[in-house]
Amino acid sequence: MESSTAFSGDGHDGQAQPPAAASGTFRIGNDLTVHRLGFGAMRVTGKGIWGEPPDKAEALAVLRRSLELGVTFIDTADSYGPDVSERLIAEALFPYPQGLVIATKAGLVRPGPDQWVTNGRPEHLRAACDGSLRRLRLERIDLYQLHRIDAAVPAEDQIGTLKELQSEGKIRHLGLSEVSVAQIRHAQSIVPIVSVQNRYSLTDREHEAVLDHCERAGIGFIPWYPLAAGGLAAPGGRLERMARGYEATTMQLALAWLLRRAPVMQPITGTCRVSHLEENVAAAALALEEDDYRELAKL
User: Fold this and answer.
1) Most buried of the four, 28, 112, 217, 218, by CB within 10 Å?
2) In a domain, 239, yes or no
3) Would you say residue 209 lies in a domain?
4) Domain count, the chain
């Protein structure tokens, strides 16, 4: 399907592939195909992921530029702002081009800046879904993810509510966030799960077993905080020295490693600046040599 914001270039047909296309594709469920390098819209909000962005015009420009660069997967949540990220996505991009998948989440509420509280009560999840549909101006959400499993609510009630919303036509596919392999399997005994969003990066591989499970099961793995490189990215460090050899930044190298790590990996990078977005998406075309990939894997 053609996007109304196709990247313009100098390919043989007068139009080059957009930069994000170099990351390859992944199928969400059996009916949605997206470029693997996506955009996370958490940081188009204010400080502490609270309120309006300090530069709304730049935030809207980032969202629009992401489509020009070939991003076909945007991840957000009702708790980002709260509500602000979803509203800005609709303001910037509606009517949405064909082929764009917007994923959103519910299950966290916000008492204040940098404060996150789980809420998996069925009535809250239902209200949250309706709110996201309204703000995003959608009739159905392509990918709806449980932001956290609430330990105070039976998991069957939380997953069961999402299954009901799916059967009502409000949700196409379902995903989970910050879960174990056992929790994924339990959820899948209730309803099909097509994505998992856990914290993962070059230097933070606590959820390696979850990633391996997703790879075996063909479940999309969406790493959040994917650019946590810590001291490895310090001036003169090993990552910086290797990046210079590729004429790339350390963050581009970290993203390239993630894309190489597993075919189900769908990194989402977030920013509130167009220049930073362009730098991140350029990582899609960075091909790591086998020896360098293995060296980074040992870090």
Assistant:
1) 28
2) no
3) yes
4) 1
